[in-house]
Amino acid sequence: MRAVGTSRQTGTPAVRTAVVWDVLRAVLAELSSVTGRDRLDIVDAGGGTGGFAVPLAELGHAVTVVDPSPDSLAALERRAAEAGVGVRALQGDAADLGDLLPAGSADLVLCHSVLEYVEDPAGALAAMGGLLRAGGVISVLAANPVAAALHRSVAGRFDEAREVLGDPEGRWGDRDPTPRRFTREALSGLLTGAGLTPGDAHGVRIFADLVPSRLLDGEPGAARALVALEQAAAAHPVLRDIATQLHILGHR
Hints:
The protein is α/β, with parallel strands linked by helices and 252 residues long. The protein has helices at residues 18-35, 53-58, 70-83, 97-100, 121-129, 145-154, 158-166, 184-193, 213-218, 222-233, and strands at residues 41-45, 62-67, 88-91, 106-112, 132-143, 197-204, 245-251. Helix 6 (145-154) runs antiparallel to helix 7 (158-166).
Protein backbone atom coordinates (compact mmCIF):
# COMPACT_ATOMS: atom_id res chain seq x y z
CA MET A 1 0.00 0.00 0.00
CA ARG A 2 1.27 3.46 -0.84
CA ALA A 3 2.13 5.80 2.03
CA VAL A 4 -0.69 8.13 3.07
CA GLY A 5 -0.43 11.53 1.41
CA THR A 6 1.69 10.41 -1.54
CA SER A 7 1.03 10.64 -5.26
CA ARG A 8 -0.31 7.45 -6.87
CA GLN A 9 1.78 8.12 -9.95
CA THR A 10 5.19 8.83 -8.40
CA GLY A 11 5.09 7.86 -4.74
CA THR A 12 6.16 11.44 -3.99
CA PRO A 13 4.40 13.14 -1.07
CA ALA A 14 1.61 15.28 -2.51
CA VAL A 15 2.89 18.84 -2.46
CA ARG A 16 -0.44 20.46 -1.63
CA THR A 17 -1.37 18.20 1.27
CA ALA A 18 1.93 16.93 2.70
CA VAL A 19 1.93 19.35 5.64
CA VAL A 20 -1.66 18.51 6.56
CA TRP A 21 -0.90 14.79 6.49
CA ASP A 22 2.15 15.33 8.71
CA VAL A 23 -0.10 16.90 11.34
CA LEU A 24 -2.88 14.34 10.94
CA ARG A 25 -0.50 11.40 11.33
CA ALA A 26 0.71 12.85 14.64
CA VAL A 27 -2.89 13.47 15.77
CA LEU A 28 -3.95 9.93 14.88
CA ALA A 29 -1.01 8.44 16.76
CA GLU A 30 -1.76 10.55 19.84
CA LEU A 31 -5.48 9.77 19.81
CA SER A 32 -4.83 6.05 19.41
CA SER A 33 -2.40 6.14 22.31
CA VAL A 34 -4.80 8.03 24.59
CA THR A 35 -7.91 6.03 23.70
CA GLY A 36 -6.22 2.66 23.40
CA ARG A 37 -8.02 2.16 20.07
CA ASP A 38 -6.37 1.71 16.69
CA ARG A 39 -9.71 2.21 14.94
CA LEU A 40 -10.82 5.79 15.50
CA ASP A 41 -14.15 7.37 14.63
CA ILE A 42 -13.61 10.17 12.10
CA VAL A 43 -16.09 12.58 10.54
CA ASP A 44 -15.09 14.51 7.42
CA ALA A 45 -17.44 17.49 7.14
CA GLY A 46 -17.66 18.59 3.52
CA GLY A 47 -15.34 15.74 2.60
CA GLY A 48 -16.46 15.68 -1.02
CA THR A 49 -14.95 12.90 -3.12
CA GLY A 50 -12.84 11.45 -0.31
CA GLY A 51 -9.36 12.88 -0.78
CA PHE A 52 -8.77 12.54 2.95
CA ALA A 53 -11.54 10.12 3.89
CA VAL A 54 -10.45 7.19 1.72
CA PRO A 55 -6.78 7.20 2.83
CA LEU A 56 -7.95 7.41 6.46
CA ALA A 57 -10.23 4.42 5.88
CA GLU A 58 -7.27 2.60 4.32
CA LEU A 59 -5.48 3.09 7.64
CA GLY A 60 -8.30 1.16 9.31
CA HIS A 61 -10.38 4.00 10.76
CA ALA A 62 -14.17 4.29 10.68
CA VAL A 63 -14.84 7.32 8.47
CA THR A 64 -18.08 9.17 7.82
CA VAL A 65 -18.27 11.85 5.12
CA VAL A 66 -21.02 14.47 5.29
CA ASP A 67 -21.37 16.54 2.14
CA PRO A 68 -24.26 18.44 0.49
CA SER A 69 -23.41 17.24 -3.04
CA PRO A 70 -24.86 13.89 -4.15
CA ASP A 71 -22.44 13.84 -7.09
CA SER A 72 -19.46 14.19 -4.77
CA LEU A 73 -20.76 11.44 -2.51
CA ALA A 74 -21.24 9.15 -5.51
CA ALA A 75 -17.63 9.80 -6.53
CA LEU A 76 -16.57 9.12 -2.95
CA GLU A 77 -18.29 5.74 -2.96
CA ARG A 78 -16.62 4.81 -6.27
CA ARG A 79 -13.25 5.88 -4.92
CA ALA A 80 -13.72 3.89 -1.73
CA ALA A 81 -14.79 0.82 -3.70
CA GLU A 82 -11.70 1.06 -5.90
CA ALA A 83 -9.54 1.23 -2.75
CA GLY A 84 -11.37 -1.71 -1.21
CA VAL A 85 -12.54 0.16 1.89
CA GLY A 86 -15.85 1.21 3.36
CA VAL A 87 -16.70 4.87 3.98
CA ARG A 88 -20.08 5.98 5.26
CA ALA A 89 -21.59 8.75 3.11
CA LEU A 90 -24.29 11.11 4.38
CA GLN A 91 -25.82 13.97 2.43
CA GLY A 92 -26.15 17.16 4.46
CA ASP A 93 -24.71 20.52 5.38
CA ALA A 94 -22.09 21.19 8.02
CA ALA A 95 -24.59 23.15 10.10
CA ASP A 96 -26.86 20.06 10.24
CA LEU A 97 -24.25 17.71 11.70
CA GLY A 98 -25.97 17.70 15.07
CA ASP A 99 -29.11 16.28 13.44
CA LEU A 100 -27.24 13.72 11.34
CA LEU A 101 -24.84 12.25 13.89
CA PRO A 102 -24.89 11.70 17.67
CA ALA A 103 -23.14 14.19 19.93
CA GLY A 104 -19.81 12.98 21.29
CA SER A 105 -19.44 10.25 18.67
CA ALA A 106 -16.17 11.30 16.97
CA ASP A 107 -12.52 11.24 17.91
CA LEU A 108 -11.50 13.46 14.99
CA VAL A 109 -13.48 15.85 12.79
CA LEU A 110 -12.07 17.26 9.55
CA CYS A 111 -13.20 20.72 8.49
CA HIS A 112 -11.16 21.30 5.37
CA SER A 113 -12.09 24.10 2.94
CA VAL A 114 -15.56 24.37 4.46
CA LEU A 115 -15.68 27.53 6.58
CA GLU A 116 -15.08 29.68 3.51
CA TYR A 117 -18.40 28.59 1.99
CA VAL A 118 -20.93 27.99 4.77
CA GLU A 119 -23.41 30.72 5.66
CA ASP A 120 -22.51 30.70 9.36
CA PRO A 121 -18.89 29.65 10.01
CA ALA A 122 -19.24 29.99 13.79
CA GLY A 123 -22.41 27.90 13.86
CA ALA A 124 -20.94 25.23 11.59
CA LEU A 125 -17.81 24.96 13.71
CA ALA A 126 -19.89 24.70 16.88
CA ALA A 127 -21.89 21.87 15.29
CA MET A 128 -18.67 20.05 14.38
CA GLY A 129 -17.27 20.57 17.86
CA GLY A 130 -20.40 19.03 19.33
CA LEU A 131 -19.54 15.74 17.63
CA LEU A 132 -16.25 15.41 19.48
CA ARG A 133 -15.70 13.18 22.47
CA ALA A 134 -13.70 14.53 25.40
CA GLY A 135 -10.10 14.74 24.21
CA GLY A 136 -11.21 14.81 20.57
CA VAL A 137 -9.65 17.01 17.90
CA ILE A 138 -10.95 19.07 14.99
CA SER A 139 -8.69 19.75 12.00
CA VAL A 140 -9.47 23.08 10.33
CA LEU A 141 -8.04 24.07 6.94
CA ALA A 142 -9.05 27.42 5.48
CA ALA A 143 -8.01 29.97 2.87
CA ASN A 144 -5.77 32.84 3.99
CA PRO A 145 -6.41 36.42 2.79
CA VAL A 146 -2.74 37.43 2.93
CA ALA A 147 -1.89 34.79 0.34
CA ALA A 148 -4.75 35.97 -1.86
CA ALA A 149 -3.23 39.47 -1.89
CA LEU A 150 0.18 38.06 -2.83
CA HIS A 151 -1.23 35.92 -5.62
CA ARG A 152 -3.29 38.74 -7.12
CA SER A 153 -0.24 41.02 -7.13
CA VAL A 154 1.95 38.39 -8.79
CA ALA A 155 -0.73 38.14 -11.48
CA GLY A 156 -0.52 41.90 -11.99
CA ARG A 157 -3.90 42.53 -10.34
CA PHE A 158 -2.66 45.23 -8.00
CA ASP A 159 -6.03 46.87 -7.30
CA GLU A 160 -7.50 43.48 -6.44
CA ALA A 161 -4.57 42.73 -4.13
CA ARG A 162 -5.22 45.99 -2.30
CA GLU A 163 -8.93 45.14 -2.12
CA VAL A 164 -8.15 41.89 -0.31
CA LEU A 165 -6.22 43.71 2.40
CA GLY A 166 -9.07 46.09 3.12
CA ASP A 167 -12.00 43.70 2.82
CA PRO A 168 -13.32 42.19 6.10
CA GLU A 169 -13.99 38.89 4.31
CA GLY A 170 -10.61 38.88 2.57
CA ARG A 171 -12.10 39.00 -0.94
CA TRP A 172 -10.59 40.70 -3.99
CA GLY A 173 -13.88 41.68 -5.63
CA ASP A 174 -17.35 40.62 -6.69
CA ARG A 175 -15.96 37.97 -9.04
CA ASP A 176 -13.91 36.31 -6.31
CA PRO A 177 -15.14 32.68 -6.15
CA THR A 178 -14.19 32.35 -2.47
CA PRO A 179 -16.85 33.94 -0.21
CA ARG A 180 -14.47 34.57 2.70
CA ARG A 181 -10.96 33.92 3.97
CA PHE A 182 -9.55 33.71 7.50
CA THR A 183 -6.42 34.91 9.25
CA ARG A 184 -4.81 32.72 11.90
CA GLU A 185 -6.24 34.98 14.60
CA ALA A 186 -9.74 34.69 13.14
CA LEU A 187 -9.58 30.88 13.06
CA SER A 188 -8.31 30.75 16.64
CA GLY A 189 -11.19 33.00 17.67
CA LEU A 190 -13.75 30.76 15.97
CA LEU A 191 -12.35 27.69 17.70
CA THR A 192 -12.42 29.39 21.07
CA GLY A 193 -15.98 30.53 20.45
CA ALA A 194 -16.93 26.90 19.73
CA GLY A 195 -15.59 25.85 23.13
CA LEU A 196 -12.38 24.37 21.74
CA THR A 197 -8.77 25.08 22.60
CA PRO A 198 -6.76 26.22 19.56
CA GLY A 199 -3.48 24.44 18.89
CA ASP A 200 -0.51 25.41 16.76
CA ALA A 201 -1.15 26.69 13.25
CA HIS A 202 0.73 25.59 10.14
CA GLY A 203 1.02 27.14 6.70
CA VAL A 204 -0.04 24.98 3.76
CA ARG A 205 1.08 25.71 0.17
CA ILE A 206 3.49 28.50 1.10
CA PHE A 207 5.58 28.03 -2.03
CA ALA A 208 3.62 25.43 -4.00
CA ASP A 209 1.21 27.91 -5.58
CA LEU A 210 4.03 30.27 -6.58
CA VAL A 211 6.26 27.73 -8.31
CA PRO A 212 5.61 27.20 -12.06
CA SER A 213 4.49 23.64 -12.76
CA ARG A 214 7.11 23.32 -15.53
CA LEU A 215 9.83 23.44 -12.85
CA LEU A 216 8.30 20.46 -11.05
CA ASP A 217 7.63 18.49 -14.22
CA GLY A 218 11.02 19.06 -15.81
CA GLU A 219 13.42 18.61 -12.89
CA PRO A 220 13.92 15.14 -11.35
CA GLY A 221 13.37 15.24 -7.61
CA ALA A 222 11.91 18.75 -7.68
CA ALA A 223 8.52 17.73 -6.27
CA ARG A 224 10.10 15.91 -3.35
CA ALA A 225 12.39 18.86 -2.67
CA LEU A 226 9.42 21.23 -2.72
CA VAL A 227 7.57 19.02 -0.24
CA ALA A 228 10.59 19.14 2.08
CA LEU A 229 10.67 22.93 1.76
CA GLU A 230 6.94 23.19 2.55
CA GLN A 231 7.39 20.95 5.59
CA ALA A 232 10.34 23.00 6.84
CA ALA A 233 8.49 26.30 6.39
CA ALA A 234 5.06 25.24 7.69
CA ALA A 235 5.63 26.47 11.25
CA HIS A 236 7.91 29.41 10.41
CA PRO A 237 6.40 32.45 12.20
CA VAL A 238 6.59 34.65 9.10
CA LEU A 239 6.19 32.22 6.19
CA ARG A 240 3.29 30.40 7.86
CA ASP A 241 1.12 33.49 7.71
CA ILE A 242 1.51 33.99 3.95
CA ALA A 243 0.47 30.45 3.04
CA THR A 244 -2.43 29.85 0.68
CA GLN A 245 -4.16 27.92 3.46
CA LEU A 246 -3.85 27.85 7.22
CA HIS A 247 -4.18 24.60 9.15
CA ILE A 248 -5.05 24.69 12.83
CA LEU A 249 -6.23 22.12 15.35
CA GLY A 250 -8.91 22.59 17.97
CA HIS A 251 -8.96 20.39 21.08
CA ARG A 252 -12.01 19.36 23.10
